[in-house]
C-alpha cells in the first residue's frame, strides 16, 4: 500500500478524511503573491536535487517529500516508482551523489519488496529515520489499483501495483557511520502495525538520538504518539506521549485535547535536543485536528492553540512545527478566536511554547486571506518560517499531496506580521511558477529550502525539462554591508589613533554566519568585536572596533575582510604614519604681572617649560612676540640649546618693563629644532606714578575705596539644551562697585568639561572705573546628557574677582532620515540617525503614518561615539498598504518621539505591479547555485 497519498511526512502529513470544510473563491497563485507583496525580491537560486525523469540518482516515477540537514548539504526524500514499492533516498549535494537508503529485510521478506516511506534526515545529516513496510507484488488489471492503495497524480497506471501485507516498522539509519538500519520500534510493539496501519512521518532530534513517531493500527483507529531514545541499541527507551486506547472508546462530545487520545492526527515534530514534542489531535478519526499540543516529560501534554483568554481555539488547528530550542511553535488555523481573523481560511500562527502568546504571521487581521496556508516548517534557529500557499478554489484539506496550484514561501519573522516574505518557487524573473509546489523543509537558518514541485520547466529554465514531480532546493543568498572606507588620519609612529567603529549590517532575509575576523596588519588592530564567530540575524548589525597604530613613516592601508557564508565584503582602512615628534607645554599658560609704574620694572615671573612627548626635544630658543613685546624683558633663559628628555623641564624668567600706560600683552614662545612649540601669554597694566606733596597743614590723608567687581545675574541656567547643539548666548554684566579703577585681566570658565565657552568678552584688558560696566556672553554646547555645572570667573589685577554659576540640564535631540524615502515593498532603505546617545543599541520599528496601527519588526542599529548610525533595512512586504508610513526609534528614557516618513509606492503593491529589476533593494541577484 502506498501511504504517501494517505499520510504525508513531518510537518506536512495529510488526513485523507478532511474535505469540504471551508470553500473559498477561485483565484490564481500569481494574484495571491501580488496581494502579499511577495514577488519583489530577487528570485532564489534553484538546484535540482532529484528527478525521476533525469539522471539525478533515482528510479523512474516521482520523487517527493524532502527533508534537509541543518547545513543544507544532505537531502532525504522518497522515490515513488511507477512500478514497485517506494524507496528512501539520500542525496549529498556537496558530493553531487545520491544513494538509496539500505533496505531492512524482515524475516522471510524478498529483497526489493519492502516499501520505505517518510524518510527524514537529522539536522547533523548523519541519521535517517523512515518507515519500512513489508509488501508483496500482485497482478491487477490495467487502469485499476490494488485494494487499500491509492495513486498520486504522478503515478502511471501499470499492470502491477503494491498491495498491503506484512507489518510496518520504524527504522533509523546511521548514514555517517555506514551501519545498517536498526529498528526503532519492532513489528511486535503495541499497537501492532500491520500493512493497513496509518503512519505519519517521524521527527528526529538534531543528533538523531531521539525519534518521535505517530501511528494508528488501522484507518479510523486512535493514534499513538511516542518518543524513542535510541542511545541504547539493545533496549530503546520509549516514552508514550499520547496512547492509543484498547478498545477505543467513543469520544466524548467535548474532549479535553490535553488529556484525550489523538484520534486524528497529521503531524509530529521535536526540538533539537528531543525534550519537547509538538503534535496535533482531533476528537475522532473523521474530523480534522482541532488542537495543537506541546509535550515535555515534566509537564505532559499542554494545549498550545489557545485564544488570548486562554481557552482552546475553535476550528482547525493543525500541522505544528517547533524551533530547535523548543521555544517557538508554528501551526495553521482557521479559528477566529486567536487573532480575530475572520476570513475562514487557514492562516499561519507562531508563538511561545511556554508563554503561549500567539501572533498572526500571514495577513493582517480583517484582511481576506487569498488562499490556505499549509505545511509550515520552522528553521532550527526559529527565525524563518516556510509554508505552502494554496490557490483559492478548493476545500480546505490537509491532504497530501497538495493537488491545487500552490507556491512555496518563506517568512523572515515569527514574531507577528512579518517584515519580509520570499517566494521560492519562481522563474528567473521572480514570477511564481505555475502548477503545484509544496512540502517545504528548511535548513538551520533558512538559507536552504527543499521542496517538491511539478513545475520543473519553469524552475529549471529549460523548456525541454521532462514533466513530473521533482525535489528542488532553493538557496536565498545572504548579504552583508559595510562602509566602503574608514580613514584614521595622521598618527605618530608608536602612538595609537582614537578607536573607530566599522558597522556590519545584514540587509538580506536570512542569517549570515560570520567567521573569526583576524587582525588586518599594516598597523590596524581589531579591538572589541561583536561580529566574529556569530550568526548575524536578518536585518541586524554588529560592530568591529579598529585602532590605527602605525609602525612606519608612510601611508598605510588594509582591507578589513568579513569572512562569512555570504558574498565577501571589504572595508578599506587607511591612515598615515609620521615620525614621532616631541611636544612642549608650559605649566603657566597665563602670566599676570602686578600693575607696574611706567619706567619701572616688576618682579620676575618664571615660566616652566616641560617636554610632554614620547621623544626628547632640542630647544632652539625663547622669544617675545606680540604688540607689546617691547614692554617685557627676558631676564633668565635656561632652555635655549638644551635637550629636554620626556617629562623634564627648563625655565624662562621675564619681567614687565612698561613704557606706556594701559593693559599691555605679549607672548613668550619657546620653540624646538623640529618645529615643536609652546607659549605663555604675558599681561601687565602700566600706570603713571603721581607724587603728592603734603600741605603744611596737618589735614588728614584720605584713601580712595578699593575697586570691587560684581556680576548681574549671579547665575545662568541654560535649561534643557539638546546634546550637540549650541545654545543662544546668555549675557552677564560686570560692574565695578568700588571706588578705584579695576584693571580686568582675566575672564575664564572653570569646570564643565569644556562644554561652556565665552562667546564675546568686552571685559578682558579693560579699565573699569567706579560704576563702569562691561559684558561677557556665554554659550553651552552639551556633549552628553544630564546636568553639567561650571563657573564663570572674572579677575582684576589686584585680586578683585566675581563668579557666576553656570548650569545646563542637557537632553538628546536625535533625528532620523530614510533614503530613499519612497520605496516599494521589499526595497532596501538606509536609515540614518544623528544626535542619539553614543555607543547605544537603538531599536527601530515601522508604523503607519499616524504612529498607530500595526507595528512591524524592523531591526536594530548601534550608534558610534558621536551618536550617529546608518543601517540598511528591508521595508516590510507583507500586510503593508500603500501610502504613508513612518520609521521610528523606540523611545528610551533619554529621548522620545523620533520619526522619519516613508512612502510605500502604490505601484509596488497593486495587482499587476512590476517585480523590479535585478538586485532590487541593494541585494545582489543570486548567481548559479553552489554545492
Strand content: 35-45%
Tell me how many strands there are.
64
The number of helical segments is: 2
Largest sheet: 6 strands, mixed
- Mean pLDDT comes to 76
What percent of residues adopt helix (DSSP H or I)? under 10%
- Alpha-beta content class: mainly beta
Features:
mainly beta; 6-stranded mixed sheet; 931 residues; disordered N terminus; 5-stranded antiparallel sheet; disordered C terminus
Which helices and strands appear, and what pairs or packs with what?
Layout: H1 29-36, E1 45-50, E2 62-68, E3 74-80, E4 87-92, E5 97-100, E6 114-121, E7 127-139, E8 160-174, E9 182-185, E10 198-199, E11 203-204, E12 210-216, E13 223-229, E14 237-242, E15 268-270, E16 277-281, E17 291-296, E18 300-303, E19 317-322, E20 328-333, E21 347-352, E22 358-360, E23 373-378, E24 385-390, E25 406-411, E26 421-423, E27 437-442, E28 448-453, H2 456-460, E29 470-475, E30 485-492, E31 500-505, E32 512-514, E33 524-529, E34 534-536, E35 541-548, E36 555-562, E37 569-578, E38 584-586, E39 590-592, E40 596-597, E41 605-611, E42 617-625, E43 632-637, E44 643-644, E45 649-656, E46 662-672, E47 677-687, E48 709-712, E49 715-717, E50 730-736, E51 742-751, E52 756-761, E53 767-768, E54 773-780, E55 786-796, E56 801-810, E57 815-819, E58 822-823, E59 828-834, E60 841-848, E61 856-862, E62 869-874, E63 883-889, E64 898-904
Parallel strand pairs: 30-37, 39-47, 40-47, 49-56, 58-64
Antiparallel strand pairs: 1-29, 2-3, 3-4, 4-5, 6-7, 7-8, 8-9, 10-12, 11-12, 12-13, 13-14, 15-16, 16-17, 17-18, 19-20, 20-21, 21-22, 23-24, 24-25, 25-26, 27-28, 28-29, 31-35, 32-34, 33-35, 36-37, 38-41, 41-45, 42-44, 42-46, 43-45, 46-47, 48-50, 50-54, 51-53, 51-55, 52-54, 55-56, 57-59, 59-62, ...
